[in-house]
Amino acid sequence: MSNISTTYYPQSGSLVILGAGESGVGTAILGKEKGYDVFVSDKGLIADHYKQQLKAEGIAFEEGNHDEARILNAVLVVKSPGIPETVPLVVALKEKGIPVIAEIEFAAQYTTAKLICITGSNGKSTTTMLTYEMLKHGGLNVGLAGNIGKSFALQVARENFDCYVLEISSFMLDDMYHFRADIAVILNITPDHLDRYEHKMENYVDSKFRMIQNQTEKDYFIYCLDDPETIKGLERHHSKGTYLPFTQEQLVELGAYLTANKTMIINTPNNDTFTMRAEELSLQGKHNIYNSMASGLIAKVQELRNQSMKESMGSYVNIPHRLEHVACIGGVNYINDSKATNVNSVWYALESFSTPIVLLLGGVDKGNDYSMLADLVKDKVHAIVCLGKDTAAIHKAFEQDVEIIVNSTSMHDAVVLSSHLAKKGDTVLLSPACASFDWFKNYEDRGDKFKAAVMEL
Fold first, then answer.
1. I need a surface site. Which of 65, 148, 197, 357 has the fewest CB within 10 A?
2. What is the pairing mode between strands 183-186 and 163-167?
3. Is the dihedral of CA 412, 416, 421, 423 positive or negative?
């Protein structure tokens, strides 16, 4: 059984949902089906298609405001992961002893499906999608949810999957208490979102390790043996499950490793060995070998056939906005990596290419330390085109390492500048290292505008 006990939270009364996005609306529908008196409250404006859904279901909601008296009368509150713990309304709820939990925590009570949960600072969307595609190709009845796809709660209400692949962020984990992952994966931990964690790396690491709380001897914990913060975290956090590490730097008896001749070897308890040459993987680059190792370990634990795994790993096409090939124009490849919203993601992107690079960088800087990129930029990047309003930090970080650094006034301008700076055989790489909301709605909007501008060249 993968579901948590239903006795942890009241099973009737007023259920309040804070935030009416994908997860909030899905939670509202599941809550209504389970007999709660549901009320949805969003301080911003609710998107029209979500309003239509709520109206069709007969669920009460408000937008542009929080009716605090009504909210503080709830027996249970499910909040959007984007709402910080420090918001006065959340503080008031907790002071009253009203449980405030995540959608995943709420919905897990109502399913006996196996829960495969993937977190990490980088690579979690790619690993989640690869795992989902591999399990689906292998014949499993599998759902996809969490930070990606349709709401987990909505699928629990309306679908009947045997297992789910869930992409889990640290913000979700902060509001998960009794939830249990049958298979927990921590890909890596690098500085990100530290403003939500008192600017303490240790707090962020502790949040990621909530992934393994409540695991039993029947469960599996998959993690990167080469990631220093994960290894440090293991000193403080323990799983009762079977540990399956993956590594490119040493050999392991159980887990996944890379041989000297670049062959990936995967061994899990009571299953035959899986082997595949790194060059046969459709996702190339050192970081993608790690992602493939994690997905491969999950697939082996789920007892997929080796041939089926090879077919998936050899043909998988990456998700949009993550090292997405847009076009080759005049011998120049244009790559959309708009999902790279932190420095570490850009490091992974630069590491993936052997061609000279024109790099599109910038946006809303979350206090980035660009020093970790210095060697790769010096080695591979011959021009940087800056995006966004505040470009001073980028100029300061790379003026000694790059021949040309120019500012742009729009995405269209940035792409045109890049096309003039790039030579035949180069790669133009949008990998911003920053949030997008100074010029764009979100990273998807930024990536879409990049693709549109490339196609206009």
1. 65
2. unpaired
3. positive
Residue 319 CB contacts under 8 Å (≥ 6 apart), including other chains: 125, 126, 129, 339
Regarding predicted confidence, which is higher, 174 or 301? Answer: 301
Give pLDDT, residue 198.
62
| Mean pLDDT computed over 140-167 | 94
**27 vs 38: CA distance, rounded Å:** 9
Residue 62 tokens, joined? 């408000």
Give burial (CB, 10 Å; 0-12/13-18/19+) of 354.
exposed
Rounded alpha-carbon distances, angstroms, from residue 264 to 68, 131, 238, 304: 55, 16, 27, 16
Question: Is 180 a residue whose pLDDT tops 60?
Answer: yes
- How many percent of the chain have pLDDT more than 90? 74
pLDDT at 82 over 70: yes
The three-class DSSP label of residue 403 is coil
**CA 452 → CA 88, 97, 118, 412, 417, distances in Å?**
42, 50, 32, 8, 15
DSSP symbols for 144-200: EEESSSS-HHHHHHH---SEEEEE--HHHHTT-SS---SEEEE----S-SGGGGTT-
pLDDT given for residue 369 in this prediction: 85
Query: Which H/E stretch holds residue 101?
Result: strand 100-101
Neighbouring CB atoms inside 10 A of 55's CB total: 10
Burial pattern 355-385, b for ≥16 Cβ within 10 A else e, equals: eebbbbbbbbbbebebeebeebbeebbbbbb
pLDDT of residue 5: 46
pLDDT score for 287 = 83
Closest CA to 337 of 318, 354, 316: 318
DSSP character string of 242-289: EEEEEESSS--SSEEEE-TTSEEEEE-TTS--EEEEGGG-SS-SHHHH
Nearest Cα to 344, choosing from 449, 452, 432?
A: 432
